[in-house]
Amino acid sequence: MPFAPILHAELLKIGTLRSLYGALLALLAVSTAFSAIAGGDGASDPESDVLFTAFSGVLPGQIAVIAFGALTMSAEFHSGALRLSLAAVPRRGRWFAAKALAVGVPAFLVGLVTAAASLGAARASMGAAADGLTTGQQLRAVLGCGIYLGLMALLATGLAALLRSGVGALSIIVPFVLVVPFVIGDVAGKATDFLPDRAGQVALHQTWDGTLSPWTGLAVTAAWAAAALAAGAWSVRRRDA
């Protein structure tokens, strides 16, 4: 079977699950609201990274896109859905590639919209404090934010495929993103720069003094996502549906 109809079928599956739409809407709503609040609070701090403050709503909002990736994949393990999918597309690698693309593209596109909305809301709250941001910095951060959110969704997709559980994937990724960097930060030092969330978020900063630049940071996050997808693909290929 050609790849295009497989991808179309996977996109149609996502369209039939309202909870997945809800996750993407939550990403947009939460990120924009928190960025607007942070923009108002950060405008009074002259030493803050204005660009990162504008995108700070993405930090809580990313949980929604992680849930989108995990739940899209885990839906295949309910009520024999995976057996039906593989009966229609016996080539498991091709099916899994279509599933990953069906997750990554919407997450990236909604991530771009979220980034633009968050930046706009934060700038409105900041007022003159945001005047120092250049067009290049803002475009780089918006694009980087979209790529980062798409990669985090793919990371969750791969882990959910490996564990065959959306809850299992979320129970690992969410604490990993929200807790682990802060717990091990003083002990691990610069090693935390290479965690998937910390690396990708460099693109949201106006200036950076760590090990990674915005694009190398996104490359590190991409490597994490690729490793998770490879593990997930192995699980789909080797284990019974």
Describe the structure.
- The protein is mostly helical and 241 residues long.
- 77% of the residues lie in helices and 0% in strands.
- It has eleven helices and no strands.
- α6 (92-126) packs antiparallel against α11 (214-238).
- The protein starts with a helix and ends with a helix.
- The mean pLDDT is 89.
How are the secondary structure elements laid out?
Blueprint: H1 3-16, H2 18-42, H3 50-54, H4 58-74, H5 81-88, H6 92-126, H7 135-163, H8 166-178, H9 180-188, H10 196-201, H11 214-238
Helix pairs in contact: 1-6, 2-4, 2-6, 4-6, 4-7, 4-8, 6-7, 6-11, 7-8, 7-11
Low-confidence parts = none
Mean pLDDT comes to: 89
Largest sheet: none
Coarse shape: elongated
Structural class assignment:
mainly alpha
Strand tally: 0
Instruction: Report how far apart the termini are.
Output: 20 Å
The value of Rg in angstroms is 18 Å
One letter per element, helices H and strands E, the order comes to: HHHHHHHHHHH
Short description:
This protein is an all-alpha fold and 241 residues long. The protein has 11 helices and no strands.
